[in-house]
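Lab notebook page, bench 4
Experiment: in silico fold of construct C2
Operator: M.H.
Input chain length: 205 residues
Purpose: comparison with the prior construct
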Amino acid sequence: MQKDWWSDDVPTLLRINNNPNIYSYQQRKKQEAKALFLRFLKETEISDKSFLKNKIVVDIGPGPMGLLEASNAKIKIAIDPIAQEYQKHNLLLKDSDVVYINLPAEKIPLLDGYADVVISRNSLDHVSDPIKVVKEIYRILRTNGYFVLNVDINHPSTIAEPHKITQSMIKKITQDFELIRKIIYNKPHGWKGKMYVGLFKKVNK
């Protein structure tokens, strides 16, 4: 059994016992999902826990345990090019109500203006073409819909993270959105750089 949670803030966020060994594997995954949802709200400085309630939400590159599982969204869609591998290796929650689409985010198979909220948390520097991904996000969002971008900036390129994302790059590729707020954290998701969190809105021009 693992001695620690995936992230060390799980017990604090959930106000539970610090020992993960008291939970089964599936219970542990559910706890991690709940913590990830709360972490998402905290990072974005969203105080309203019903921010995703009854909305159509698309998560870009969430991995096998996304925050959507713990949200109260109406329709939950995860776009991830290796989702089939998650299923193959039993990494998904057995009772997950998230629809996983096994495709890259450069060409999202959804209609224009379909989603209320699109989330890209720690994924934009992993994709093949960040510009195309943001264009697709803009396309599938309805007017007045929200785009939440959370990405490490100013870190060296790696095999897994081939793009060095900068604030100037983000400003350029999100120019069609209205920026609601921007937060910079000194602690990145990875090993170098800083964490950039932006809340954007699609508005009529």
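Observations: The chain has one domain: 47-201. Strands lie at 56-60, 75-79, 99-101, 115-121, 141-153, 178-185, 194-201.
Next step: discuss at group meeting.
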